[in-house]
Structure formats: C-alpha cells, structure tokens
Inverse folding.
C-alpha cells in the first residue's frame, strides 16, 4: 500500500485524520472519480496552499471533464463551532485563491455524516452555508460512501 | 483592579490573551469609546455567541450613538495562516448572527500591529479582506493605542 509517497506497512495504524482522508478517497473512486492530485498545490502571491484532493470525471455526451477539489474535514475536536470557524475560513480562502489559478475547478468541503447531522443542519450552520454558497460533500466514514452532494 | 468580574491582585500575571484584551480596551477608552459589554452575548437559533467587546461613542451634531463590536485576536500561534482562517470564519459567522439581532452594530476584527505588518499586508490577505469587506482595527500592544481603523 502506498500512501502519500511513503510506503506504509500492512497493519500500520494511520492517524485518525489520514483514515478519514483515505475513506473519502475510496468513496469518490466508487463514484467514478479519478484522483489527479493528492494534494493539489497552488498559490496566490507569496502564500502557498494545498488542498487535500483534486479529482476529475468524464462528463456524459463528450462535454469534457468535470474538475473538483476537496478539502476533507474530520471535525474530531470537542468544539464543533471552533472546527467550523476554521473550516469556513480555510474554504473561503482556498476558493478565492483557486479562482485565480483554476476558475473552472469547483471546491468542496467534505464533512463526516455525524457532524453534518449534529451541527450542519442547525438553522445557523444552514444560514452560513447559504450565505457563502459553500459546496458540501457529506461522507460516511463507516461504509465509505458519499452520503450527499450539496 | 477588577477584571471580568473577578478581583485580580496587583502584580498577578494575566494570560497573554487577556493582556491583549486589556490593552485594546485601554486604547479604545483613549479614543473616547465607552465599553458597554465585556463580552457581548447574542444568539442565532440554537447557537450562542460571545464577542469580546461592545462599545459606543457619541456622534457629533446629536446624530445619536455609534455602536460597534470587536473581536480581539492576538495571533500568538506560530502559524499566521491557521490563525487567519479561524479568525476569518469566526468574524463572518459573528457578523451574520449579529446582523439579525443588532443590524446597526458594526463588527471589527482587532489585530496586533506586528501581525498586520507581517501578514495582513500581503497581496493575499488584502484580497480576502476586500472580498469579504472585513472591518479591521490595528492595535499596538506596546503603547496601547489604535494604530489604524480600516
């Protein structure tokens, strides 16, 4: 098994963050996405960024390729709202920077199903997501499937 | 000296975060602002928020009172960009929630002068601040004055 350019021995325990990353990758491959960058590097002026994944998928009727980028969040901290502030700020900064280098690539924030059910469906989180037009992917860590594209 | 409802003995060491908070308060009082809430509590649906300070100042020519709220950031972490993501997300969430309860109160993000000079004047940070119309207060922790309102 190769992982991020390093050979990881079978049975090695991955940090929780990486487990989530791998689960999202497998869920997207099931939906016919091809991973093109892991991670995708880009920059804006003197600031460098790396978003977790870049993927593409052939569109029907020869309309070319659909390109997306995904920042994967595990929301493992005890404070959902603190994680949310950080994820929102990061997503908006990445989207602004990415618009300059690859305007056709849509950026998604991937969040686990339990966080989505507990926090993202509150009236407040829904208002923020609508206000800033955030594209969400909700993934299920247990069965490694994409639960929702929003 | 009273501090946040607790009596703090002269000579007691305050955590760095509180030192910044106190310095910003003194700098604003020098500019004729009156502190009305420390902190200001508000809510949106089931989510409760508290922004560091609420202040008001009499406007010239009997035009009433100008009301503001300030979230004070010390940017003490080693990663300016991680602090920036969190501060941006928190500011945008607070502003959205505050618009519902007190639409006339303008929200500012207070940042220390050294962070402003090192990070906030990069091309990228300037683009983010313009994109999201962020109101900034730049404070000098050493002489306890407001360096800039932006």
């Amino acid at each position: 098994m190769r992982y991020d350019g390093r050979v990881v021995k079978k049975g090695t325990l991955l940090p929780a963050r990486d487990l989530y990353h791998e689960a999202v990758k497998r869920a997207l491959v099931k939906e016919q996405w091809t991973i093109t960058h892991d991670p995708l590097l880009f920059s804006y002026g003197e600031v460098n960024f790396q978003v977790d994944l870049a993927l593409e998928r052939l569109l029907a009727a020869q309309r070319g390729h659909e390109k997306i980028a995904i920042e994967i969040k595990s929301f493992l901290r005890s404070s959902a709202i603190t994680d949310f502030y950080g994820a929102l700020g990061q997503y908006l900064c990445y989207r602004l920077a990415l618009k300059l280098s690859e305007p056709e690539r849509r950026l998604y924030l991937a969040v686990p199903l339990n966080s989505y059910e507990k926090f993202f469906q509150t009236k407040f989180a829904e208002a923020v997501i609508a206000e800033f037009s955030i594209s969400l992917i909700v993934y299920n860590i247990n069965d490694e499937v994409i639960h929702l594209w929003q």
